[in-house]
Every structure is written in structure tokens, then in C-alpha cells.
Design goal:
The chain is of the alpha+beta class. The protein has two domains: 41 residues; 110 residues, START domain (Alpha-D-Glucose-1,6-Bisphosphate, Chain A, domain 4), CATH 3.30.530.20. It contains three helices and seven strands; from the N terminus they run αββαββββαβ. Strand 5 and strand 6 form a beta hairpin.
């Protein structure tokens, strides 16, 4: 059988297109697998089907504030906050308001307040503000620890962003 030059070029082009498509597909699969495998070794990142939320921390001379938006009901976040307070013997519950979903606690010389509110976008905002006693610089990270413990209790992966 005699194959014309145009037919031969067409066959080569079809073969290259199929091989190129397979190569591109394989490259995408390998790249995705490497990204997923790499994410498993990043501290604070859990590889689950859930999105990773960002915990924002602002530090000042008198304390710190940690805030996070969670895809959970305000009641679930508030319940997790109360469970953590109840489970830690070093934390003293000073005040709570179930209607407003606020908690005030003390931990040694430091005090902290936490509150939960439903945002317009449907997410729940958790804010924890810790203060050190007058004349003492904040260093314990009480607000950050409380916020990350609540995220962990809810099974929510997080990433820390300090300002």
C-alpha cells in the first residue's frame, strides 16, 4: 500500500496529538499529587476535604486578638469554646452570656474574652481578645492558643497569619 506524503504527515500529527494529550494529562496528575503530598508536611495544614481557614492574629504591647471565620454554626463554635474552658483546670470562667455567645475567662494574671457572631456572608466569626496585666508585655499567646484549640475541636484546618 502506497501512503502519500500528506497521509503520512497526518498520521504523525495525530500520533503526536494523542501523545501530547496523554503527556499533559499525566503532568497535571503528577503536579496535583505532588502539591497534595507537600501540603501534608506543612505545619498546621491538615489535608481533608474542608477548606483551610485563616486565623488572623494582631499583637500589641498589652495583648493580642485572634479572629477566624468558620463554616460552622455559631452555636457549635460557642459550644466548642465552652467545652475547652470547662476542660482546662487552669482557665477560670469569669462570666458568660449564652444569648450573646460571649465568654470572659482568666488564666493566671491574663484575662481573655471570646465572642461568636454570625456574619452576613453566612460564616461564623470567632474573636478572642487576651490582655496582660498593666505594665507587663503579653507573651503567652492565650488568644491564639484558644482560637486554634477551638478550630481543632471543630476539626477545621487552619493557617496562621500574624499582623
Amino acid at each position: 500500500m502506497v501512503v502519500s506524503r500528506n497521509q503520512e504527515i497526518g498520521n504523525i500529527h495525530r500520533r503526536n496529538t494523542v501523545q501530547g494529550g496523554l503527556r499533559k494529562g499525566l503532568t497535571r496528575v503528577l503536579a496535583s499529587a505532588l502539591l497534595l503530598a507537600g501540603a501534608m508536611f506543612v505545619p498546621g495544614c491538615l489535608v481533608t476535604g474542608a477548606a483551610i481557614v485563616v486565623v488572623h492574629v494582631i499583637r500589641s504591647a498589652r495583648g493580642e486578638t485572634a479572629t477566624v471565620e468558620l463554616d460552622a454554626s455559631p452555636r457549635a463554635v460557642y459550644a466548642a469554646m465552652l467545652q475547652i474552658v470547662d476542660a482546662d483546670p487552669d482557665i477560670v470562667l469569669e462570666d458568660k452570656d449564652d444569648g450573646e455567645m460571649t465568654v470572659s475567662v482568666s488564666h493566671g494574671e491574663e484575662t481573655a474574652s471570646g465572642w461568636v457572631k454570625l456574619m452576613e456572608n453566612g460564616y461564623t466569626e470567632l474573636t478572642v481578645k487576651a490582655k496582660s496585666p498593666e505594665g507587663r508585655e503579653a507573651s503567652s499567646g492565650l488568644a491564639l492558643r484558644a482560637t486554634t484549640r477551638i478550630c481543632e475541636k471543630l476539626g477545621v484546618p487552619y493557617k496562621l497569619v500574624e499582623k
